[in-house]
Write a structure and sequence with these properties.
Layout lengths: L5 H6 L20 H7 L4 H5 L2 H15 L4 E2 L15 E4 L3 E4 L6 H5 L6 H4 L1 H14 L5 E6 L1 H10 L7 H9 L1 H25 L3 E6 L7 H7 L1 H10 L6 E5 L6 H7 L3 E3 L6 H8 L4 E6 L8 H15 L5 E5 L9 H15 L3
Parallel strand pairs: 1-4, 4-5, 5-6, 6-7, 7-8, 8-9
Antiparallel strand pairs: 2-3
Helix pairs in contact: 4-7, 7-10, 8-9, 8-10, 9-10, 10-12, 12-13, 15-16
């Protein structure tokens, strides 16, 4: 049943009974049932325990009524077997104890067997598919190479990405080597997810909007084209970034069946610039979920009016659900999308 679900039909720009909706970070700490599971595990332990990761992946399906599940994992998991010293510290988020700072650091990263190193992720995919029992499709995902490279070079979060941009500009050969290695790992990682049962994929390029358009075209676009050309053609792929209004055409050129839009650009303008031969996903500001229900509903109605009934719109936030978001606000969002787009 899920193979012909509204979400997958929208990815293919086919007619749907209602606009499908899911939300990024829909499995997360705003949900009390998720917090109950987290009391038993550290974040990394949760990612590496397939039964628990399956549980939190499936939790939002009945609670929220969303049209797709997204695998519970983290975009940085692929960096751990690359011996960069991945650590998740409570309150501080992820960091890398052995960041890349010089060209020679790229060469010290080992070549890895992704199927073995990340076997726990693929086991989770299989468990989730069984638990969903065809109710909704499962989205697998990975971090895009630029965002992974930025984490690897910065050693964690950053406000200006100075180390990353200096590396990109000063060491172009090493940068291209790093990106090529990350493309290889990402392609293998996503291919294994599809083999395990993922029915769609999303590339999270969360930090790429910090690049100037010329730098994106010269240092990222060629690698993204390679990546998309090597992904399994059997499942749709969503290409998502934030702060990308300045590079949205180049992102569409890079590839993907669906282009994710954040709230810094209107849906109508974003879709026009991406091209109507692509589906789009988005693009409500996550902070609206803190607003009273009538405001949430008005924002949903305005979003759907911008989509103008054109096939290929997947409703979503422009980024992930924020900590502390009221669960009822998320449910209001989902219900309003279904109600206003035809599923009453």
């Amino acid at each position: 049943m899920s193979d012909d679900a509204p979400f997958l039909r929208a990815c293919r720009r086919q007619p749907v009974p209602h606009t499908p909706i899911w939300v990024m970070r829909q499995a997360g700490r705003y949900l009390p049932e998720y917090r109950a599971v987290r009391e038993r595990f550290s974040f990394l332990e949760l990612c590496k325990t397939p039964e628990a990761a399956c549980e939190v992946t499936v939790q939002p399906i009945d609670r929220l009524g969303v049209d797709a599940a997204i695998l519970f994992a983290d975009i940085l998991l692929v960096l751990e077997p690359l011996q960069l010293g991945l650590v998740f510290s409570p309150g501080d988020g992820p960091s890398l104890e052995n960041p890349i700072r010089r060209p020679e650091d790229v060469g010290r990263m080992p070549r890895i067997d992704v199927g073995d190193a990340l076997a726990y992720v693929f086991e989770t995919v299989g468990l989730v598919r069984s638990a969903l029992a065809g109710r909704v499709p499962l989205i697998g995902f990975a971090g895009a190479p630029f965002t992974l490279a930025a984490y690897a070079i910065e050693g964690g979060g950053s406000r200006n990405y100075l180390a990353t941009k200096r590396f990109l500009l000063e060491y172009p050969d090493a940068w291209n080597d790093l990106m090529a290695r990350l493309v290889d790992v990402t392609v293998e990682y996503l291919t294994h997810q599809v083999r395990a049962g993922a029915q769609a994929l999303q590339l999270f390029d969360s930090w790429v909007g910090h690049l100037a358009p010329d730098d994106y075209r010269s240092a990222v676009l060629p690698h993204m084209k390679t990546l998309f050309s090597r992904l399994p053609p059997t499942v749709p792929v969503i290409h998502f970034g934030t702060g990308t209004a300045g590079i949205i055409e180049a992102m569409a050129e890079a590839g993907g069946d669906v282009v994710g839009l954040d709230w810094r650009i209107t849906l109508s303008e974003g879709w026009r610039r991406v091209g109507y031969d692509r589906a789009v996903q988005g693009n409500l500001d996550p902070t609206i979920l803190f607003a009273p229900f009538p405001i949430i509903r008005s924002k949903v109605r305005a979003l759907l009016e911008e989509a103008a009934g054109r096939p290929g719109h997947i409703a979503n936030l422009g980024h992930g659900v924020l900590p502390g978001t009221p669960v009822d606000g998320v449910r209001c969002l989902v219900d309003a999308v279904h109600e206003f787009s035809g599923d009453t």
